[in-house]
Amino acid sequence: MKNLYLIAYLDLKESIRAKWFLVYSLVFGGLIALFFIAGVTESQVMGFSGLSRLLLMYIQITIVILPIFILITTVRSISGDRDNHILEYMLSFPISLKQYYWGKIIGRFITVYIPVLFAMIIAIVYGAMKGADIPWSIFFLYTGLLFSLSSTFLGIAFFISSFVKSSEVALGIAFFIWIFLLAFIDIALISLMMQQRFNEGFIIFIAMINPMELFRVAAISLFDPELTVMGPVAYYILDLMSQRAFVLLSIGYPLLLGVLFAWFGFMIFKKKDLV
Amino acid sequence: MIEIKNLTKKFGSHVSLDNVSCSFKKNDSVALMGANGAGKTTLIRSILGYYHPDSGEVLINGSNPIKERIKVLQDISFVPQLPPPIKLSIQELMHYISVSANVEVELIKHYANEMKLDISANLSKSFFKLSGGMKQKLLIAISLAKKSSIIIYDEPTANLDPKARDDFYRLLRKNEDEKTLLFVTHRLEEVQELVNRQIYMDMGKIISDEIF
What we know:
- The complex is a heterodimer.
- Chain A has one domain (2-271).
- Chain A is globular and about 55 Å long.
- By secondary structure, chain A is mainly α.
- Chain A has a two-stranded antiparallel sheet with strand order 1-2.
- Chain A has helices at 2-17, 19-37, 50-74, 76-83, 86-90, 97-129, 136-163, 167-195, 200-208, 211-223, 233-238, 243-271; strands spanning 44-45, 48-49.
- Chain B has one domain (2-211): Rossmann fold (3-Layer(aba) Sandwich).
- Chain B is 32% helix and 28% strand.
- Chain B is globular, with a radius of gyration of 17 Å.
- The mean pLDDT of chain B is 92.
- The chains are: A mainly alpha, B alpha/beta.
- At the A-B interface, α1 and α5 of A face α2, β5 and α3 of B.
């Protein structure tokens, strides 16, 4: 275990010193600051006001930014080390591949999750200082949703990193996955729905197995438990399960997906030539 | 002891090692030579357990370097041809080595001093920001501090000035007893005084194996 923590600790230290981490932290911290400066907490749109409105805006932005940030900064962690011969030297010491791989994941997870979490904590502290009502349940559930979304994309990134030899190819694949899950899959499903080739329930099921879509709908359900803003689609979801079960599924499923991808990545990493 | 039995390694259609068999015993000091693409690095990486062979096997003191990598790597020191751009500070790198391989940091500092490298003044500096020669000196110091019975050097003096080369040879002579030393080199004259065996490789095969 000491080697696992050692790898995680050193990866964390290395990442925190990196320029991408500074940009990453500034983006999320800066967003929250921008919301306060823009007076989001004082505004009221569609019935959402104060910190709830701020968190809703934060969700809409993190759903776009967080996955691509995680993919781009993580996808090169192993393939990059392999590319520039760091892996060749670091693995010449008696560290098991399991300790190296999972240690890297733990270190990188802390690195990508902490700034996002801190940005939310800053929002809560600032809101409390201003005397706003703090939506604790939304805060904790949203923290869980962010945790599981981060796990998914971290798992996908490590999966790609484990089999791709060049970090440029890894970046290309990561970008394609991001744009596919963010937009292409929705466009394809909308056109399928319009052509009425498949049952609507089946199309909604495909949309919901997309972790980004699930995150988006679950985040909306924190503010709008009946999912009224989604129209008739809400019936397909809420007829199948309660809002509470849906939120729990939205946390559990992406987490499981991330662990599975990371595990497949480890299997490939273990079975393939290391350099 | 290193035993290589009928080792074949292919990359796609290219055969990098073609049914190679050889063994390296204690007190063997070997110059592994050959043109670019002869299979020297593939052989070294197979010994370190980085490559899964297509056929044949590598045994280090009776252990497979892939299946028992921790046990095998406890007894191997390795210095690559080009120091990798590790972003850790020197202190962090030494911490990594100290915890993972149970190497005393003070011993690394001792050998670094012997190589005329002042580590204390650069502890917080990133490894990759050191000059090529300084990096190589530190990697050599680490390899000696590890006290392994097998030491593998891939062109170890490539970045060293003549004075540093002399320091390196002097330290090696002091530490070579009861060890197996493997030098991958293109210039035999640089390690001639240290080696007692010369292996020449070409097209993935051992062409000649001379013991002096």
